[in-house]
């Protein structure tokens, strides 16, 4: 063994530390190499509930946006969260208000979802019926359920902010099936589940 090899092994005497460092380097390298389009295409295979996050500004005007990242975080205390682009104007209003309501959209509310997702901010609530939650946030008519929250923490993660909310009130409004976002398109729970099953068993090949 050469002196150089012996010195190298002595300098890196902790194999656990080396393994972790090498693994982190490999992960970072692989992450940097992932194409954005491929990233979105693959993650699109994870169905997500379409949720409208709403709030009101200082003048009582409603604001809202669509997310596919709403999830529960903790049971005790009751916490939920969602991710939003840091450039979102609705996010700025939510942080200023310190509260928000998560509305689980129903399968028949695709048009409303598109309106809240891409429409001009001042027109998103035009002809949209809603009632004020206990905290004063918009609860949209016809939703499956809603969760009313106060903001307890925001965390910068990449190009998004993770917003964590403390649940103050919540309610199931209907037994409708929820609106889902799956493989780049909309669908309700039943239609998306049926499509996935058809593809898995090959039924979509019959008759071709």
UniProtKB/TrEMBL annotation:
InterPro entries: Flavin_Rdtase-like_dom, NADH-dep_flavin_reductase, Split_barrel_FMN-bd. GO terms for molecular function: FMN binding; riboflavin reductase (NADPH) activity. Pfam families: Flavin_Reduct. The keyword Oxidoreductase applies. Gene3D superfamilies: Electron Transport, Fmn-binding Protein, Chain A. Residues 1-28 are annotated as: Disordered. SUPFAM superfamilies: FMN-binding split barrel (SSF50475). Residues 43-188 form the Flavin reductase like domain. The keyword Hydrolase does not apply. Keywords: Oxidoreductase. Belongs to the non-flavoprotein flavin reductase family. PANTHER family: FLAVIN REDUCTASE, FLAVIN-DEPENDENT MONOOXYGENASE, REDUCTASE SUBUNIT HSAB. This is Flavin reductase family protein. It comes from Streptomyces asoensis.
